[in-house]
Design goal:
six-stranded antiparallel β-sheet, about 15% helix, SH3 type barrels
C-alpha cells in the first residue's frame, strides 16, 4: 500500500462509510484503490466493534492481478466526502493490515477457524 496521506473517507449512495486510497479526483468522479467498508457493531458489553471489510474481496480477483488490488470510480453526485476528518491511527492500521500481504505462517497460527471461499 502507498502512503497513508492519500486516504479518503466518504459515504456512498447506500449509506456505507468507506475508506480508500485516493487515486484521482475530478469535478464529477472520485477514483479510489482498495476501498473498505467501515462496519460498526455494538458488543454485548455496550462497546462498539469496528471492522474494515473490503468492498470486493481479493479472492474474487484472478491470481495474476490479486496483488494490484482493485480500483473503483464513484460519481461525486452520489457520495458525501468527509472534510477535515482525521481518522484514528488504530483505524488506519486496521485498513493497512487489511490490504497488506499477510504471511502464510501468520494465517496458519491464527486461532480463528479459516473459511475457504473456493475449493483449491
Amino acid at each position: 500500500m502507498s502512503d497513508k496521506t492519500n486516504l479518503v473517507t466518504f459515504i456512498d449512495h447506500i449509506g456505507r462509510t468507506i475508506i480508500a486510497e485516493e487515486i484521482s479526483s475530478t469535478k464529477d468522479r472520485l477514483t479510489v484503490k482498495n476501498p473498505a467498508i467501515l462496519h460498526v457493531q455494538p458488543t454485548q458489553q455496550g462497546q462498539l466493534n469496528v471492522q474494515t471489510i473490503p468492498l470486493y474481496f481479493k479472492e474474487f480477483i484472478s491470481e495474476k492481478n490479486r496483488e494490484n488490488g482493485t480500483t473503483w470510480a464513484f460519481n461525486k453526485s452520489s457520495i458525501v466526502e468527509a472534510v477535515d476528518v482525521e481518522n484514528d491511527p488504530r483505524l488506519l492500521e486496521q485498513y493497512t493490515r487489511l490490504f497488506s500481504a499477510q504471511p502464510a505462517a501468520a494465517v496458519a497460527s491464527s486461532p480463528e477457524k479459516v473459511i475457504k471461499l473456493f475449493d483449491e
